[in-house]
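Changelog-adjacent note: as of this version, every example in the card shows the full chain rather than a window. The one below runs 77 residues end to end.
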Amino acid sequence: MGGPGTSPSRTMSRASVHVDIKHLPQMPDEPQKRYLYVAIDRATRWVYLEIRRSQSAKDARAFMQQVKEKLSIRRSR
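Full-length structure tokens:
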């Protein structure tokens, strides 16, 4: 990374995206848990999120595909 006194966030590439999945509390009227998928572009702080019903690999892949599409559209402007 950078030298002394350099913030790591200032030396990251523009392609660096943080992804996180959190379970949401199940409300009494909901039949099942839901999960919050979040992607944050560390360079621009752009955020994309989805609420999904599963924490499966299939859902994770689908979410990442959406992130890639949204980022490519955003960066091509």
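Structural remarks: Residues 6-12 have pLDDT under 50 and may be disordered.
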